[in-house]
C-alpha cells in the first residue's frame, strides 16, 4: 500500500522468520546473544538506502527503536506500531517472555498460534483477517522465535528513547491488549517531538486489521516531513 504511493518498500523477514535463514541457537533452542538491531542496521547500509523511513510493529518496533537511537544517520523517520520498550522493564515480563520459548517447543506452531492469536485482534475483527493472523503466527519456527524472545527479554529501550532524534510517529490499536495504549503513549511522551495516533477498531495486529487506516496515518506523517 505504501509502495503504490511511490515509496520503495522493503519488508524484512527477521532471522528465523519467513524466508530468512534460521539464526544459530544452542542445543536447548536458546539464542541469548542474537542482536536483531545490528542485522537491521547492516541491511540498511548494504541496501544503500539510508536514511530510511523505518517502520516497526510489535517487537519489530523495539528493534527499530534501538536502530534509530544508535544509528541516527541511517534513519530519516521512525514509525512504531503497537510496540513497547521491550520485556526487560521488570523481571515478571522477562520471565513471561522466556516461558514462551518452552511453550512453542512443547505445543508446536499451529497450537501455539491457536492459543494466542485471538488476543492479537479486536473483538470486531473480520473472521478472514483473524484467520490470516493466526495462520501467519502458526508458521513461527523455534529458532527465530527463540532469538526474538531473548532479544525482548534483555531489552528495555526506556533509557534510549530520549536519544531518538528522528521524527517519530507512535501508532496503536485502540483495543490492543498485548502491549496496550498506555505503553504506546509512554513511548510517544518519551521520544522527543513524537506524534501519537490511535487506530480505532483494531487490536495489537492493527496493521493487518486496519491497513488502510494505518497507511493513512503513516502517509500523513511522512508528508509533514516534506513541508
UniProtKB/TrEMBL annotation:
GO terms for molecular function: catalytic activity. InterPro entries: AB_hydrolase_1, AB_hydrolase_fold, AB_hydrolase_sf, Epox_hydrolase-like. This is AB hydrolase-1 domain-containing protein. Pfam families: Abhydrolase_1 (PF00561). Residues 3-210 form the AB hydrolase-1 domain.
Amino acid at each position: 500500500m505504501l509502495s503504490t504511493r511511490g515509496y520503495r518498500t522493503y519488508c524484512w523477514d527477521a532471522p528465523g522468520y519467513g524466508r530468512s535463514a534460521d539464526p544459530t541457537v544452542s542445543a536447548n533452542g536458546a539464542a541469548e546473544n542474537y542482536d536483531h538491531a545490528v542485522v537491521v542496521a547492516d541491511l540498511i547500509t548494504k541496501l544503500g538506502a539510508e536514511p530510511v523511513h523505518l517502520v516497526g510493529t510489535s517487537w519489530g518496533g523495539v528493534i527499530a527503536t534501538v536502530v534509530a537511537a544508535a544509528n541516527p544517520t541511517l534513519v530519516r523517520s521512525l514509525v512504531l506500531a503497537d510496540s513497547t520498550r521491550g520485556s526487560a522493564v521488570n523481571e515478571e515480563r522477562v520471565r513471561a517472555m522466556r516461558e514462551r520459548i518452552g511453550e512453542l517447543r512443547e505445543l508446536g506452531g499451529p497450537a501455539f498460534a491457536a492459543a494466542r492469536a485471538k488476543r492479537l485482534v479486536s473483538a470486531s475483527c473480520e473472521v478472514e483477517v483473524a484467520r490470516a493472523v493466526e495462520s501467519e503466527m502458526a508458521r513461527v519456527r523455534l529458532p527465530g522465535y527463540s532469538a526474538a524472545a531473548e532479544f525482548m527479554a534483555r531489552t528495555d529501550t526506556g533509557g534510549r528513547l530520549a536519544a531518538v532524534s528522528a521524527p517519530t510517529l507512535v501508532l496503536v490499536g485502540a483495543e490492543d491488549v498485548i502491549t496496550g495504549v498506555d505503553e504506546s503513549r509512554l513511548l510517544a511522551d518519551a521520544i522527543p517531538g513524537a506524534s501519537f495516533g490511535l487506530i480505532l477498531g483494531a487490536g495489537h495486529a492493527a496493521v493487518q486489521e486496519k491497513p488502510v487506516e494505518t497507511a493513512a496515518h503513516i502517509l500523513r506523517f511522512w508528508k509533514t516531513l516534506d513541508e
